[in-house]
Records
---
Amino acid sequence: MLDSRYIIAYGLTTEESDYLRKCSEEIECEVLTARDFRDLMSTGHFLSVISADRLDKEAVVVLSEYFREVDGNLTKRLLLGQEVAGLTEAAHAEAFENFSELKGKLPDLLSKASKKAKSAETTIHTLANIMQVRDLIENHPGITTHDLAKAIDKNEATIRRYIEILRIMRNKITYDSNRKTWSYRH
């Protein structure tokens, strides 16, 4: 799950976690510590640092399946330790033999992952707003541009752009120029 405010670490030593926290201060995010490998699937974060050596066979199977079938690959994953068959590929992870190998690259990796996550979040929020406009028009035939703007806290020009995107996507949205309202044609 993507959240540009958090990094999650699993299986790191105290020293490694401290260094990760120090690096994360530069990009103003918080490091969470996963107590169980399942936290890697349920906690919102934009980057995970995982000590693969701390994963048992069940964890590798479950995580590989999750990354392959469910995860949208919006988060960056860094795997430390012996490469685990299938997990690195399924997670689209960057693998490092140990934390020392990662250490020098970590600040740059964090910065790039943070920027990518923030950009992706912006896109996701825009898409969510577009879908909300579609739902409002469909569920409230005769709604005005002003009411749509007020409902999602955007300006009217943005609403008109969102509607144009919906129309390009073949949504059957019509405008009544007499009433100055929008409707969805089924």
---
Amino acid sequence: MSRSPRGGVAPDGFRALHRFGQNFLVDRGVLEDIVRRASIGEDDVVLEIGPGQGVLTRALLERGCSRLHAVELDERLRETLESLALREPRLCLHWSDALRVDYAALDPFPRKVVANIPYSITTPLIWTLLRFAGRGLRYHLYMVQKEAADRLAAEADTKERYPLGVTLEVMGGVERVRRVPPSCFRPRPRVDSAVVEIVLTRNFHLMEDALWSDMLHRAFAQRRKTLFNNLKGFGKIEDWEELLRKTGLDPRNRAEDLRGEEWLRLHEALRTSVG
């Protein structure tokens, strides 16, 4: 089930709720592209967020994964999904808000996440799941709003650049797999969607250091301000201009100007300075 700001009635009469931002994927070609791209194997433990009526869920199970953890908030879908789980013991249902799940307790632990996620929680959900890269959750395939996909993959010196995109750059890479128009959903959302693939290949434990996220969010807090003006007073650093110059950075730059390796240098310098 894909999500967007609009509600309405799905093809089978199920009413999508505005507060859950529900829209239902009805294009079989898009569904097949998603499961094919995920390359699910018999040893894969997969996490799905928002299974809805189980369309993607069934497709993932058909691909032969060893276990599928599915997180759903809408209790109206309990009968549908529990009926599927009774027939398919590899499916493990978790009835919860995706932002409040104890992912660390999932057993066996997932190595891939494949999901049509609620667009309103795209950024906080991905931030949350990146913390488990060190445990092996390193493949992510999401349906997201097209504008979110553009931000996730934005390069330095672009206005779409933001903290999560920087983090994904230094941990691996993001690829926009395909655009998905509103006609692929019922009810139709007012926005275009996109499938994005995130593959993490390095810096797996970066998100375990809260200083990384805090530094980025402070630096991007007011986009028109320079790096120096956003960071001064942060981290108990007495002379941010000196620290930036010693790190090889121009204090007059804005946060969006920096490349991934420059952010890593700044993070290391800050971590050393604050002890």
